[in-house]
Design goal:
With 243 residues, the chain is of the alpha/beta class. It is 21% helix and 26% strand.
């Protein structure tokens, strides 16, 4: 399993980073974990072909996590993509993507595409099998118009876990348990912000988090300024992890 952070930033581009977008190659498939509004630019910057992506997994329906989908879909249309695209996310994701497409490019959601596009909804703690991927969502705490999820993806005897955005909840313990890599939001340094994780909370949870490796992402300015002193591995745009 090869994991590359195309975007490791927060919603506001702190540190000049792109919004949430993790590119993964495993089991002969390529998928994204989240697809923030800047994702198409981020992928191209790293020479990662957007038209080669088979699946997009969306943790929750905020623009910095799903807002890149209209651009990804329309780019694929103009580039004559033929391979199917599957988008997995919270209940209502198909409608939210259609609405976003209509806001950005009126009429674009009803154009007949050259490639099949399917939407699959997550349910709390119910495993979903898509080809070589086993995907499980764990409902967390981050209001976004639909249930938000931490994600757990198993493939090739490897497990990637991802917190999405959330304040602390013990659901993260279940999502991360036994994972080879847990990618966890660390939005603030040690000041609790409602519906988000701070690095202090992650450090306090470390004895309970039974993952093999943890990487903090989605960092605000105060975390980025102290990243070298945290004693926790942090993400950056372009970073590659091979499991």
């Amino acid at each position: 399993m090869r994991i590359q952070f195309a975007g490791s930033g927060d919603a506001f581009g702190s540190g000049g980073r792109f919004q949430a977008c993790i590119h993964v190659e495993a089991g002969g498939t390529r998928f994204l974990v989240d697809c923030g509004a800047s994702s198409l630019i981020a992928l191209r910057r790293l020479a990662l072909d957007p038209t080669a992506i088979d699946v997009v997994l969306v943790s929750h329906l905020h623009g910095d996590h799903f807002g890149g989908l209209p651009f990804l879909i329309l780019d694929a249309q103009f580039r004559r993509r033929a391979r199917p695209l599957t988008i997995v996310g919270p209940p209502g994701i198909a409608m939210r993507v259609r609405e976003a497409m209509e806001v950005f490019f009126p009429g674009s959601s009803t154009v007949e595409r050259r490639f099949p596009t399917s939407f699959v909804e997550l349910s709390d703690r119910k495993a979903l099998v898509l080809g070589p991927l086993s995907i499980t969502g764990f409902e967390v705490v981050h209001p976004s118009g639909a249930p938000p999820f931490a994600l757990r993806v198993a493939c090739d005897d490897r497990v990637l876990a991802y917190s999405g955005d959330t304040e602390w909840t013990d659901a993260l313990l279940d999502a991360a348990r036994g994972a080879d890599l847990f990618v966890c939001e660390g939005y603030r340094l040690d000041r609790p912000v409602r519906f988000h994780l701070d690095v202090g909370a992650i450090q306090r949870a470390l004895p309970k988090l039974q993952c093999r490796r943890l990487v903090v992402t989605h960092m605000g300015d105060d975390v980025l300024a102290r990243a070298a002193d945290l004693g926790i591995e942090t993400a950056e745009d372009g970073k590659v992890i091979d499991l």
